[in-house]
Amino acid sequence: EVNLAHQFYNNAMKLKQVANFYNKIADEILPCQSGMLLEDANAFEKVVKKDHKRTADGKQISWDTPVQLKAYTEELYMAMSRLTRRNKVLRKVHDQVSDIVVRLMDTDLVRQR
């Protein structure tokens, strides 16, 4: 019984993280990079909207079906992690390019001739 409660707690925490992510991801993505994240964002949304509400035998996934709930939660979490990871990489590259542009702006082209 304690083990089952622990499983439910873990699933609930992951679902909470996914819900928070879903609610704030639009603010995390730079508008100039949204096209580069479109495939990952669509994959995440596909998992969210996919008909996971039913198991292979047609039963509805609920807190009463911990194995199916865990599988669905893990799939959501993995899709969220992929999108998060990709967004972080793109933001880092964006910052690096911005730094290069700022340094180029400090270059005096007349003196460099």
The number of strands is 0
Give the number of helices.
4
The major sheet is characterized as: none
Shape verdict? elongated
Mean pLDDT: 87
Work out the strand percent. Answer: under 5%
Unreliable parts: none
What is the helical fraction, as a range of percent? Answer: over 70%
Content-based structural category: mainly alpha
Q: Tell me the span between the first and last alpha carbons.
A: 77 Å
What does it look like?
- The chain is an all-alpha fold.
- It has one domain (2-112).
- The protein has helices at 2-28, 38-49, 66-105, 109-112.
- The N and C termini lie far apart (77 Å).
- The model has no long low-confidence stretch (mean pLDDT 87).
- This is Dynein heavy chain tail domain-containing protein.
Short description:
The chain is mostly helical. The chain has four helices and no strands.
Fold topology:
Layout: H1 2-28, H2 38-49, H3 66-105, H4 109-112
Task: Please tag this protein with its features.
about 110 residues, mainly alpha, 4 helices, about 75% helix, about 0% strand
